[in-house]
Design a protein that fits this description.
The chain is mainly beta. It folds into four domains: about 1-40, no CATH class; about 65-225, Jelly Rolls (Sandwich), CATH 2.60.120; about 230-300, Immunoglobulin-like, CATH 2.60.40.3010; about 305-385, Immunoglobulin-like (Sandwich), CATH 2.60.40. The chain has three helices and 23 strands. The protein has helices at about 1-10, 15-20, 25-40, and strands at about 65-70, 75-80, 95-100, 115-120, 130-135, 140-145, 150, 155-165, 170-175, 185-190, 200-205, 215-225, 230-240, 245, 255-260, 270-275, 280-285, 290-300, 305-310, 330-335, 340-345, 365-370, 375-385. A five-stranded antiparallel beta sheet has the order 1-4-11-8-9, with no helix packed on it. Strands 2-3-12-5-10 form a five-stranded antiparallel beta sheet, with no helix packed on it. It has a five-stranded mixed beta sheet with strand order 19-23-22-20-21, with no helix packed on it. A hairpin with a 7-residue loop joins strand 8 (about 155-165) and strand 9. The longest helix is centred in the first third of the chain and has 12 residues, at about 25-40. It starts with a helix and ends with a strand. About 25% of the residues are buried.
């Protein structure tokens, strides 16, 4: 069942029906499909209904009842295909456009908007992440107006409001910069209801400046999920002795919890000298009071020797790989390609012996080192001197 939810859980009802009709599913799958349609949040943490605006493409109409306009002169379009708009959807098969109008026509100087009721309320004080794909259509327009063609190819601002009722500006969540990118770009916003629970999100357009003008905004692929479902993870490989600045996201408070002996536990960054592979973890409180957890894995760059002298003089007696990763496999071959030494989870302890423990003669040998984290294979030659 989990695999089926993985296939169906993130899709809109329209997409689910289309998928069912195009595939050969048995009766059990059919009843599971009906269950997912009845309880669409199952298998998905997304709290927005029909997040990719799937539905019939047509002007002046939203794709489904999940999204509704507020202002009586607001009539968003389900795209592409209307008003010369040809931008491909960023997800699924359709998206919506909203416009603001200049001083011309019956709807002069008006701005469009849209709102949606969430699958479940966002509790006051809880943190969520809202992602949305936005773009400016560079071809939006129609015949008419003073010059015979009305051009809407101008950027707008979008404002996001949260409230307990639809079409209500109770609490401002975000006011964007002008959306001028003509290809889809994902915008991410932190949502934290401060005054009351959010049952609705309300999206409205705003002019960048006055006087009023014609502009458009394309919207697709919305996602509203609990804040930071997965902690962020940064991985770097650094040569021995170099400095690294560990710099998490911007915040108001910092708590470095791993390792305990880090230089500064409450600083916005830490400078470390790399002498071994190390792991770091920090908790960040952002400007809205939301907790972020960030992880840093610093790997010491591998330095593999090309010569060693296992003669028991306590100097260079073992084949020592600086920065060796845990669970690395190590194989040594002679010049005829025969395996003479092999170890799983190599511990930097080869002293020039063969598999049974006896000494190998001096000469050139070939090695293969398979690192487990990250998965990578290193090979080369090493000169064994006695």
């Amino acid at each position: 069942m989990g695999a089926i939810i993985g296939v169906f859980g993130m899709r809109s009802p329209q997409q689910l029906f289309k998928l069912f009709t195009m595939t050969r599913l048995n009766c059990n799958h059919f009843f599971l499909l009906l269950f997912l349609l009845a309880f669409p949040a199952i298998g998905s943490a997304n709290l927005i209904k029909n997040p990719s605006f799937e539905g019939l493409r047509r002007p002046h109409q939203l794709p489904s009842w999940d999204w509704q306009a507020c202002h009586w002169k607001s009539s968003p379009d389900t795209q592409p295909g209307s008003w010369n708009v040809s931008l491909f959807p960023s997800d699924g098969e359709s998206y919506i456009t909203m416009v603001a109008r200049g001083n011309d026509g019956n709807n002069a100087n008006t701005k469009e908007d849209v709102h949606c009721r969430l699958f479940e309320p966002l509790p006051q004080g809880e943190c969520y992440t809202l992602q949305m794909d936005l773009a400016l259509s560079e071809n939006f327009g129609h015949n008419g107006g003073i010059n015979g063609w009305v051009d809407y190819n101008n950027p707008l601002i979008i404002k996001v409001w949260g409230s307990t009722t639809g079409c209500d500006r109770s609490e401002l969540v975000w006011s964007s910069d002008p959306i001028s990118n003509t290809n889809w770009q994902t915008y991410e916003v932190t949502v934290r209801p401060m005054n009351s629970d959010f049952e609705f999100l309300f999206f409205e357009l705003e002019y960048v400046s006055l006087p009023e003008y014609f502009g458009n905004l394309c919207m697709d692929n919305f996602r509203l999920v609990p804040f930071q479902e997965t902690p962020s993870f940064t991985e770097r490989t650094v040569p021995y002795g170099e400095f690294v600045v560990l710099e998490p996201s911007a915040g108001t408070n910092y708590n470095w919890i791993v390792p305990e002996d880090i230089a500064c536990q409450d600083c916005p960054s830490n400078l470390v000298v790399v002498t071994d592979s190390s792991y770091y973890e920090v908790e960040v409180i952002d400007s809205l009071g939301c907790l972020l957890e960030e992880h840093f894995q610093i790997w010491l760059a591998l330095d593999i020797p090309n010569v060693f002298t296992p003669n028991n003089d306590q100097q260079n007696d073992v084949f020592f790989v600086q920065g060796l990763r845990p669970n690395s496999d190590f194989t040594v071959l002679n010049r005829w390609g025969r395996v003479v030494y092999q170890r799983s989870n190599y511990q930097n302890d080869w002293r020039g012996t063969h598999q049974l423990g006896g000494e190998l003669p001096a000469g050139t040998y070939y090695y293969v080192l398979e690192s487990a984290t990250p998965r990578k294979t290193y090979n080369g030659t090493v000169q064994l001197l006695r």
